[in-house]
């Protein structure tokens, strides 16, 4: 048996209405809120301000989907000038949580260009000091509230790029997961974010870094999504189904916080950059294909994957395709404007990427 370890330093508070616990988590410290523009219109921002009260130092509420290098660079220096003594309260989906994490590490120059330069060389920036963060997800899928990773996109340069910031200082101090905050999500966001959680769960299983703890959480997360997402989409105001979705997202996040993601995510980055797919859709529609590639590669991985549907199911990848059909998602590249040749080349490139190398299977042309 191989030696394994599991580590996650994030203190988790979970439950319907648990946002009320925010003052307790702040422990009297000053706070800066990082959130999305619609938080004001929905009344969420007003709720946050009431909870934080006199400890509020400021609000940044112009975060946009998929954190952009130019946006972070523009805000970083001023952020540290104003809020160097604050806890960062990040409230939103994955883009908000990732954007907030970009502000956590402080560097000697006080400029984000120093961090970007390190990322461009696949190096860790020299962090001189860091802020703490309380992550409050408003979607059920990202898992970012319990991971140290933050994705950054550069679409303004001649060659579009994706960067991943990963430091000890970018682990949130605490995650406050309140399923009630997901009630206002549109149908597509509800679906795609929960498919993101499913991807996190499966990618944690067919992964060279998997361990018994991550397996247990990943299997449960995958089962919850597969069994309950169709019902959630039919009953979006259900407290039960919203709570189950948030639970699946959290469990999947705790699983892949130790394994990282794998092949489906490496494919997704190109699908987002070149074809404009949302992250949740981009990293999930290939899951049946990747399951086929994983099947039969390692007996212990097959054993864990078989727990999701039960050992008697002959073709789990086909069953997963039926699930995607039920929630209105195609698993075919051609339906996203990708030719068979381009898809084959994309898969080859993804296998060589840093996440692709976490995958247990070897590439074979499936097209």
Summarize the structure.
The chain is α/β, with parallel strands linked by helices.
Secondary-structure map:
Blueprint (H helix, E strand, L loop, with lengths): L10 E4 L7 H5 L4 E5 L2 H5 L1 H9 L3 E5 L8 H15 L3 E6 L1 H10 L1 E3 L4 H9 L6 E4 L2 E5 L11 E6 L6 E6 L7 E4 L9 H19 L6 H23 L4 H21 L3 H13 L3 H4 L4 H8 L4 H11 L6 H11 L13 H13 L15
Parallel strand pairs: 1-10, 2-3, 2-4, 4-7, 7-10
Antiparallel strand pairs: 5-6, 8-9
CATH superfamily of the largest domain: Dehydroquinate synthase-like - alpha domain
Low-confidence parts lasting 5 or more residues at pLDDT below 50?
none
Number of separate strands: 10
Rg from alpha-carbon coordinates: 20 Å
Number of DSSP helical runs: 15
- Structural class, by secondary structure, is alpha/beta
What share of the residues does DSSP label as strand, in percent? 5-15%
For the record, the CATH class of the largest domain is: Mainly Alpha
Helix content: 40-55%
Shape: globular
């Amino acid at each position: 048996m191989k030696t394994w370890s599991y580590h996650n330093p994030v203190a988790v508070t979970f439950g319907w209405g648990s946002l009320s616990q925010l003052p307790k988590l702040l422990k009297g410290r000053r706070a800066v809120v990082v959130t999305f523009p619609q938080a004001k219109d929905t009344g969420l921002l007003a709720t946050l301000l009431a909870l934080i009260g006199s400890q509020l130092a400021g609000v940044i509420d112009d975060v946009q989907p998929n954190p952009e290098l130019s946006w972070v660079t523009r805000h970083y220096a001023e952020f540290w000038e104003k809020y160097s003594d604050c806890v960062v309260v990040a409230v939103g989906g994955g883009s908000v949580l990732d954007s907030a994490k970009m502000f956590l590490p402080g560097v000697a120059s006080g400029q984000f260009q120093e961090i970007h330069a390190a990322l461009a060389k696949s190096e860790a920036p020299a962090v001189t000091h860091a802020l703490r963060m309380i992550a409050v997800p408003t979607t059920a899928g990202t898992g970012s509230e319990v991971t140290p990773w933050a994705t950054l996109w550069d679409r303004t340069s001649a060659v579009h790029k994706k960067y991943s910031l990963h430091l000890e200082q970018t682990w949130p101090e605490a995650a406050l997961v309140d399923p009630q905050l997901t009630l206002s999500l549109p149908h597509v966001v509800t679906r795609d974010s929960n498919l993101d959680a499913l991807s996190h769960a499966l990618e944690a299983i067919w992964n060279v870094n998997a361990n018994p703890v991550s397996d247990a959480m990943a299997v449960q997360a995958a089962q919850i999504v597969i069994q309950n997402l169709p019902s959630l989409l039919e009953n979006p105001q259900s407290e039960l189904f919203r709570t189950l979705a948030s639970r699946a997202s959290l469990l999947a996040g705790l699983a892949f916080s130790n394994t990282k993601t794998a092949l489906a995510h490496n494919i997704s980055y190109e699908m987002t950059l070149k074809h404009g797919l949302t992250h949740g859709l981009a990293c999930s529609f290939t899951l049946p294909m990747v399951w086929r590639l994983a099947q039969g590669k390692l007996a212990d991985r097959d054993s864990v994957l078989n727990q999701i549907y039960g050992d008697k199911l002959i073709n789990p990848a086909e069953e997963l395709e039926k699930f995607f059909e039920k929630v209105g998602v195609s698993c075919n590249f051609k339906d996203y404007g990708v030719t068979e040749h381009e898809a084959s080349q994309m898969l080859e490139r993804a296998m060589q990427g840093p996440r692709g190398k976490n995958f247990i299977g070897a590439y074979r042309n499936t097209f």
